[in-house]
Amino acid sequence: MIHTLRTLFTFSLALLLMIYTSPAYAQNPQQYPTLILTPDGVAAIKATLGNAPLLTSSFQETKQSTDALMSAGINVHMPKDAGGGFTHEQHKRNYKAMHQAGILFQVTGEDKYLQYVKNMLNAYAKLYPTLGLHPERKEQSPGKLFWQSLNDCVWLVYTIQAYDAVKGQLSQQEIQNIEKNLFYPAARFLSEESAETFDKIHNHGTWAVAAVGMTGYVLNDKKLVQQALYGLDEKGTGGFMAQLDQLFSPDGYYTEGPYYQRYALMPFVVFAQAIANNEPQRKIFSYRDNILLKAINTALQLTYDMKFFPFNDALKEKDLRSVELVYGTNIAYAHTQDKRLLSIAEKQGEVILSAEGVQVAKALDNKEVQPFNFTSMELRDGAKGNEGAVGVLRSGIQDKDEALVMKYSSQGMGHGHFDKLTWLFYDNGSEIIQDYGAARYLNVEAKYGGHYLPENKTWAKQTVSHNTVLVNEQSHFGGNYDLGMKSFPTSRFFDVSNKDVQVMSAEIKEVYPGVNFTRTMAMLRDEAFDNPIILDVFEINAKDSQQQYDLPLYYQGQLINTNFDVQNNSSQLKAVGQKNGYEHLWQVAQGKLPAGTVQVTWLNGDRFYTYSTIGSENAEMLFTRIGANDPNFNLRNEPGLMLRKKGNAGQTVFVSVLEPHGEFNAKDEYTTQASSQIKSLRLQEQDGAKIIWIETMNGDLRAFTLATNPAVKSKHNIKTQSGKLNWVGPYHYFKLKK
């Protein structure tokens, strides 16, 4: 393939080299461009085109895309549509076309790209002074070109790069017109006139400071740069440096979650690279112990099969091929030379057209790639790393190996959900235990203008849409955002020292008045099972009696069977509840849980999954489906289970095991190991510890012990009917003979 690409582009490269020496390109005496693409970057692209296939194909794709966009002419319309509407999308196409045309002008010197950018900028310079706030403006942070100022910020980040690419070819009169009527007013609107957003520690603020700061560099306006770095008062209460200090944990975790970490990375990374190119003495990529480079690595780690873990407001369609991570991966590689990043770039299938992209393309061409290891890790949340965490347990280093994710992080600001101690599970290349993510159809105007749907508040943010416990059908913290922001879980322990027994545990107090939660989850690799199994122990401690506890589980797959009687509501459906998200759940069936081991099995792809739990006389299981009270069909109709218990004052415990097993082979028409290997699951509490007994169909006996005292050096000695259990620390996994 590499040989073919080289052959295909030999002639075009020779033609381009003739163009590079044309008078139009040689006339530029100034040091433009100065942001992401630089004169050195331009030279590197020229020298490498035709020799590094990924750079060459990326260049050709950019050229084809830009030529197609340019063929539509200059279309700068008066803004009138919300997200997804015609004018909204046209202004997006315009900034993309300008940005790419600017790069192509620098690389090829072709006058058509220069004239296109210049004409587009002149058109915007004529339009911008006539604009008020957008007619479809959002209630908060309205924009001018777009319905929200966030989109105006994105427009400016791209458009200033286009101007940066052509400024050296413009007359002083043209420069004065464009800067006076477009860039200064746009920068002023996004800073002084949108002060609350500009100084906000939030991804909207990040985009704003990046847009204004990059504009400051191109306009050679030091005040704009200082305000972008340190806030409008230039004292550090806001601005880019405060964003770096407060939005990332010491591990590089972004407080709004993986999806918004992806989105926020773009302004963080491009502005940082612009700072590095203009003020290298700041050593911005070394700031706060390389926090931006950590953030890029963390974003990569928070994925499965390239897709981001979708907790908090998140759209599941986004993956590592998004433009933000292409920039992040390329720039991170340029600053670290970490060969493992090359395997991510290889999957992305493109590079950015800059010196950084050239480095990646050349390294790939030289076959320097090393595998990126996806590892088990605990990522702390909060600027100081003391506001909970996200725990990730993986069965291997490949991106399709089993992955167990437990979220015990902070609220996550406005995009956070009420989902303390929830979890997700991936296996066999699929999402098995899911998080719903956000209720939104991005840029689909017919769906609420492309904005977050009303059901994002009534369903997706509510606790019942997640895999965690609810008390009396109320969301965590009563759904109160301010209260949620003040409370966060605490990690009890996280231990992955033994790859066969990986365990994490967290707790949170006063999720409800007088109610505390503790959850411990383990990934256990054991020869008694086909694949690693997942153990879940959820402890509830309450002061009051007669509480109702619900533990939902949203699985992906087709229900196969249960080992208890289920009553199906086949003739009439009703919602599980009246509010707090319960009104969006159809109750399609229910069954009382007998004492002993209760099991539900479903099929996902070619693998079976059995969820085993412990039944009792005061427990039942509801079978649910999302979609009740949804007149506009905004919600995905997906299945779930709900364990329900009546609890008294004191402790109530949910114990369950998720077991992947067997194979369903449709091609060759056979099925193996379609039934669970777990014969019984039992909880015993003795001498300050919980013992979870697991007996297999083959007669194997396992005991997972969980001490009340999580101290690492605490010693425990317990006599049981199956023998002595001696261990040190908060837990142990025993393999015994019955």
UniProtKB/TrEMBL annotation:
GO cellular component labels: periplasmic space
SUPFAM superfamilies assigned to the protein according to its UniProt record, in alphabetical order: Chondroitin AC/alginate lyase
Domain Heparinase II/III-like C-terminal: residue ranges: 380-593
Signal sequence region: 1-26
Subcellular location: Periplasm
GO molecular function terms noted in the UniProt entry: lyase activity
Residue ranges of coiled coil: none
Every Alginate lyase domain range: 96-302
InterPro entries associated with the record: Alginate_lyase_dom, Chondroitin_lyas, Hepar_II_III_C
Gene3D superfamilies to which the protein is assigned, alphabetical: 2.70.98.70, Chondroitin AC/alginate lyase (1.50.10.100)
Record's keyword annotation contains Transcription regulation: no
Major localization class: periplasm
Keywords per UniProt: Lyase, Periplasm, Signal
Keyword Cell cycle: no
PANTHER family per UniProt: HEPARIN-SULFATE LYASE
Name recorded for this polypeptide: Alginate lyase
Native organism: Pontibacter oryzae
